[in-house]
Amino acid sequence: MQHGPAVRRRKLGAELRALRTSAGLTSGEAARLVGWHQSKVSRIETGTSGVKPADVRLLLDAYAVADTQLRELLMVLAGSEDSGGRHHWWHAYRGVLPPTYRDFISLESQAGAMRTLETTVVPGLLQTPEYARAVTKAAVEGLPEDRLDTLVEVRLARQDVLRADPPLELSAVLDEAVLRREVGGPGVMARQLERLVEAARLPQVRLQVLPFAAGAHIGVTGPFVILSFLSTSDLDVVVLDHLTSSLYLERKEDLQAYTEAFNALQIHALSPEESLDFIAGTAAGA
Fold it and tell me: What is the pLDDT of residue 286?
């Protein structure tokens, strides 16, 4: 288990090492091609030191990597903006957001797909402003109003990934408790449920409800997120949230275990069509 920044460095380094190996180069040969000392290549590949986007570009050129999507992903992981010129908007919130949250947003913004189990609250990408405010206020007591406004602003800005081109593919399994827990009062909850109905109809969103009638399930240990990257599965990661930080699981065994758990949850949950009816019915009775 690693914190976000360490995971990103390790995954970036591992991918660069794999590309070097595919190019038939030793670390010493790669270093000579770009005019570095061999130790710099080793530190980058092991994730023990950061790497600038310009350095990543040099290595990718040296390894003759032509896959533009892969190049862009690795460049962004190194801190570059994407090809559309979109800057890392979350950098403007450095004084407000903890590093682990900023790093999660960075990974989320570049992921091709997200699978998430939520057992207590609506996923952040699907929250209304009023619901986001109520959840944030409850999670962090005594938060000044201006900082609360900023955190809600960040939560809503994150939702742009669902409107990107291409959009993030979101698959979410929601425990029935998510729909039943009244957050922010009846009016706020009613509008949030309506938002879920709207989201469930989007082609890039797959929502399933795990009803109480399903009994105990593998997700009772807590919520989790699996981020997947289209260019390479080696960058996939599981994210577990805790009260004061987030943990990232990157081992293949962990990814397989959580993927199998999510697949099992989807089987036991209502179908997307049944879930849409269930959410709509809950909204009507809210």
Answer: 56
pTM over 0.85: no
Taking the domain 93-285, which CATH number applies? 3.30.870
What single-letter amino acid sits at 217?
A: H
Q: Which residues does residue 210 pair with via DSSP β-bridges, in sequence order?
A: 175
CB neighbour list of residue 115: distance below 8 Å, 6 or more residues apart: 171, 172, 225, 226, 228, 259, 262
**Starting from the edge strand earliest in sequence, which strands make up the sheet with 113-118, in order?**
205-210, 169-175, 113-118, 224-228, 237-241, 246-249
59 DSSP β-pair partners: none
Check pLDDT > 50 for residue 215.
Answer: yes
Domain ranges for the chain: 4-78, 93-285
Q: Which fold has domain 4-78?
A: 434 Repressor (Amino-terminal Domain) (1.10.260)
pLDDT (tens digit, 9 = 90+) per residue, 44-84?
Answer: 998 888 788 889 999 999 999 998 878 877 887 776 655 44
